[in-house]
Amino acid sequence: MGIRKKLAQRSEDWGYSLSLIAELYLNDIKGKEAPSLDAWSTAAAIAAVTEKLEIMVAVRPTFHNPAQLAKQASNISHISNGRLSLNVVSSWWKEEATKYGIHFEEHDDRYARTKEWLDVVINVWEKDHFSYNGKYYKVEDNILQPKPEKKPFIYAGGESEAAKSLISSQCDGYVMHGDSPELIGKRIANMRERREKLGLPPMKYGVAAYSIIRENEAEVKKELNRITDVQNTAAGFDNYQQWLSGTQLEGQLSLQEYSVSNRGLRTGLVGTPAQVQDKIAKFEAVGVDFFLLQCSPQLEEMERFSDAIISVKA
Questions:
Q1: Please, what is the Cα angle at 286 between 282 and 289, to 5 degrees?
Q2: pTM of the full predicted structure?
Q3: Can you state the angle between helices 161-170 and 181-198, rounded to 10 degrees?
Q4: Interval 190-238: pLDDT, tens
Q5: CA atoms within 13 A on the CB side of 198
Q6: CA–CA separation, 124 vs 116, rounded Å?
Q7: Which of 95, 110, 208, 227 is least enclosed, having the fewest CB within 10 Å?
Q8: Which residues contact 216 (CB under 8 A, 6 or more apart)?
């Protein structure tokens, strides 16, 4: 945990406001044999050694009983003084689920389960003596104490109709795969319209992005080539193929994009500091509130982004 503690604490110093902790029992990028940390114990550890970061933990309903997860989340909310949020992910990786004895469902069934899961989680956070009798979950006269220090903000992502319908009605924020400002703007406009029809308050909007910042075009191109030098035989490529088969994305992905998760390169935060600043301004203009930033090597590139972008905007 040493490097992760350092990353979390330094990110606060550098001006980052949020850290996403992925929930994966196997490593989907480096291959199934590579190490993969447990999300919830990691979140508790980071909560204890930071002071300002929002800790967004990815959670997959098929892997967690909702009332028990709500209890864990409430505890971490107290450890962090109310800085916990959830990124609810309807599972996509069948092989991972079967290796851990988890039932795997088809796409729309997963979203039906997620709806019930959220019903339970939100209600047991808000009141005691709550009962629920659904298709997937049943609880009777639940008591959850202590309640969260602050009700965790709930994010989710997805491009299918099932996903957008659920997110617009039950979540507080919408997180998106990387794409151009024009396409992201259209997705935000669609979600805003859905929220208004439901009479619900505005959401927060986040976008995945991979950052490469260098002083000239030649250095940018060199780093981009290093990042995207991926072959079909890479250890995690089979996992990537399974993910594609289990999702309903609006656009196709290239092999090059396999090197960076969540279409991060499409966001275009690649170039000189001035070019990246201009691109960020375009995303802000269409309603983007934050970026879920990726970079490698993480410590060095996070500091570079902070020096070139965050400190300038501040």
A1: 90
A2: 0.89
A3: 60
A4: 999 999 999 999 999 999 999 999 999 999 999 998 888 765 445 555 5
A5: 18
A6: 12
A7: 95
A8: 272
